[in-house]
Design the sequence.
């Protein structure tokens, strides 16, 4: 990824650190309060749009149910769409222009049992 964004909560930080060590990511993790439990999706999207600016690959590490609601919002425009990510699920979205509401395509979703352990 071009940038990694994480919730500032300890468990998310630990997960982000595992990822950066595994993929040999050499930049700093950027911590975003809106990725924490109870974060506001609209403010999170605004924060991400300001921080990313242009096309690229970005990795978000956060918590449930916020990530499922964010994915639902971005692919359907409705955060109540029934998506439920299990712990350690990976999801790839393609987005041309990030904004609040439907703006993404779901490319893939991989449940933890399909991945080799770190």
Sequence:
């Amino acid at each position: 990824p071009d940038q990694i964004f994480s919730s500032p909560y300890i468990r998310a930080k630990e997960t982000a650190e595992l990822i950066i060590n595994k993929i040999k990511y050499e930049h700093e993790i950027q911590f975003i309060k809106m990725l924490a439990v109870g974060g506001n999706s609209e403010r999170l999207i605004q924060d991400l749009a300001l921080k990313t600016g242009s096309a690229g690959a970005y990795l978000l590490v956060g918590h449930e149910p916020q990530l499922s609601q964010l994915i639902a919002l971005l692919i359907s425009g409705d955060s109540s769409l029934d998506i439920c990510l299990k712990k350690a699920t990976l999801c790839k979205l393609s987005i041309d222009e990030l904004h609040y509401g439907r703006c993404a395509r779901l490319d893939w979703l991989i449940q933890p049992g399909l991945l080799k352990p770190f």
